[in-house]
Design goal:
homodimer; alpha+beta; 13% strand; 172 residues
Amino acid sequence: MALPKDYTSEACSLARALEVVGERWTLLIVRDAFFGVRRFGDFAEHLGVPRAVLTSRLAALVEAGVLAVVPGAHGRDEYVLTGKGLGLWPAVRSLLAWGDDHYSAAGPRRVFRHAADGGDVAPDGVCPVCGAAPSVADLVVVPGPGLAVPGRPDPVSTALTAPHRLLEPIKG
Amino acid sequence: MALPKDYTSEACSLARALEVVGERWTLLIVRDAFFGVRRFGDFAEHLGVPRAVLTSRLAALVEAGVLAVVPGAHGRDEYVLTGKGLGLWPAVRSLLAWGDDHYSAAGPRRVFRHAADGGDVAPDGVCPVCGAAPSVADLVVVPGPGLAVPGRPDPVSTALTAPHRLLEPIKG
């Protein structure tokens, strides 16, 4: 059931936000961008999303100003989060934490660590060591006790089995 | 494009969360439940969602343990958030704030006020007056500068033009 794209009868900023990121693939693409995925092929392989769908979702995110296209190392386009896209981190982090709370009996699948002092940053964004709320670029994603090793690891999943600083490009 | 329901290849708690709340209507239903909407007819009229879709989404939320069915005043079923459902507030709040930031030029459409001291609670959940993070039940939703009065107001929209404590039933 598709939502009408033009949602003017909904005087709500949640509805507006969901017009842009309300597709499930879309938030997974945004999550991957936070993890440092930049290349079309890496998104496709990590997400297992059909390439036509990925093309459409990436174009919509660029049009909405959530992602920007930048030239990559080998002349291929890469996708990076804009300032507007970075603003989605609290929403991504909150949904991740809720998923961990209710669908990961062995504990969080991933832990977000403050690079400066090693504090494990709570879902509300506050570092227990320094009491500050580190910016996204100061967080390191670390495998948590609930992370299962995928049966058929793709390069992105493999890279994320080791600590990885958010936004730093993943070498696929 | 539907996501496969069984998403076992995605070892990610965000993917799990989106299996449950990844439909756009679903998060709007959850938002309404935070605002105190409890009755089928009120959800239907406020959201403008087809009744068959609403029936299906409510059933899925009950099955997932996000909503519970309770007997209402006139023998009709009502839907209320469970503890698990209440845990979605940070995600709903974050997406609302992001929508306000980017799609509401006149400012936030709704403000969330700490009932105890009148502080306008920031998107990160912290009250600037007392420094604490009030629980959902201690928040009052107040029209913000960006709220447009709907052309054809339904009872829920009308109720929310005045301050309204979250979770308190809206009298449709």
